[in-house]
Amino acid sequence: MDHDLCKLNLVFPVTAEDQILDFLLDSRPALPGFTSLRVEGHGAGFENASPREMVRGRIERRLVFIVLDRARLESLLAELLERIAVPNLAYWVEPVEQFGQFK
C-alpha cells in the first residue's frame, strides 16, 4: 500500500461548481488531475432545498474526487478554507491502496 496517497472527496451545492473547479484548476502547485460528477444527496439537511428537490426527496450536488499526496492534502484544504466560502461543502479523505493507469 502506498501510504503517501489519499483520495479527497468534496461534495458541494451546484451553485458553487464553477468556483470550486476554478479553484482546483488554478491551484499551485498544480494538482495531478481530478474527477467531477453530478450527484444527488439523500437524508437530512433539506433546509436549503428548492421546492423541486423537496418534492423529489433529494438535493442536487456536485462531487469532486482527487487522488493526491498526503503532504499536499493539508495545504490544499487550508487554501480551500481560506479562499472559498461555500456553505454546505462537505469533505472526507480515504486511503489509496494502489493507483495507476493502463496504457
UniProtKB/TrEMBL annotation:
Top-rank taxon: Bacteria
InterPro entries: DUF3240, N-reg_PII/ATP_PRibTrfase_C
A Pfam family the protein falls into: DUF3240
Protein name: DUF3240 family protein
